[in-house]
Structure to design on (245 residues):
């Protein structure tokens, strides 16, 4: 029997927004010696534009595996992932790379900014890869950096930025290509409480204006509670997380 964790139509404006992400029967099995290890087991998930979902769970529960499947970085053993009504498993590797560039933004725990590039160059990179002229890509990137409070640091390289500043650049880079879906892996995990709070406020502002869905994997209960829904990944299944008493 499928686990179904879906938005409720009629819950305010969300029920009228288009479906951005849907998974059906999503399963990932790894071979470990003579045994098959089921990490994700028959998951069903639906998200709509503008919705933010936090995924929580213990270390080793499969949260990173889930992000990799949603982002097309790994392939399910069974089931499918659809983003913007496109089934990822039907795409060739080259087409999947182009699709990720157009529809999926990533924010990693450790930023993954290119050390030799400035903040504006790092932010513009997805557009340059897409084929936009460098001048046009950097003009749009600068607008995103302004929105995340980093315009004055646009010419600085990652080594000259604080952890919170690097994370703001990473968020701008994830949004610069107007993706359908943004995947965040512990976006506040390496930040002090004050900086994490500013990133949280920034995410509130951006998710209110960006027409995309956000999946946020986190161990931070404050960050999780701030999202539209909190789902717990346990024993390969996603279930609504019960708030603490």
């Amino acid at each position: 029997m499928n686990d179904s964790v879906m938005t409720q139509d009629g819950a305010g404006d969300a029920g009228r927004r288009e479906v951005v992400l849907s998974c059906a029967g999503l399963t990932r099995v790894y071979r470990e010696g003579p045994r098959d290890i089921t990490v994700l087991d028959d998951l069903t998930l639906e998200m709509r534009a503008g919705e933010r979902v936090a995924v929580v769970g213990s270390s080793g529960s499969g949260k990173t595996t889930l992000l990799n499947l949603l982002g097309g970085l790994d392939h399910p053993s069974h089931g499918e992932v659809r983003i913007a009504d496109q089934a990822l498993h039907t795409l060739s590797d080259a087409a999947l790379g182009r699709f990720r560039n157009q529809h999926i933004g990533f924010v990693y725990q450790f930023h993954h900014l290119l050390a030799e590039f400035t903040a504006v160059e790092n932010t513009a990179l997805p557009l340059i890869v897409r084929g936009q002229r460098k001048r046009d890509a950097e003009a749009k990137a600068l607008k995103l950096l302004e929105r995340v409070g980093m315009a004055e640091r646009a010419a600085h390289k990652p080594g000259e930025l604080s952890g919170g500043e690097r994370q703001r650049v990473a968020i701008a880079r994830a949004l610069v290509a107007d993706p359908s879906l943004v995947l965040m892996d512990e976006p506040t995990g390496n930040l002090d409480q004050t900086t994490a709070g500013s990133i949280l406020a920034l995410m509130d502002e951006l998710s209110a204006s960006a027409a995309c869905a956000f999946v946020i994997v986190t161990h931070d209960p404050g960050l999780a509670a701030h999202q539209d829904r909190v789902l717990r990944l346990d024993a390969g299944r996603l279930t609504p997380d019960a708030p603490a008493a």
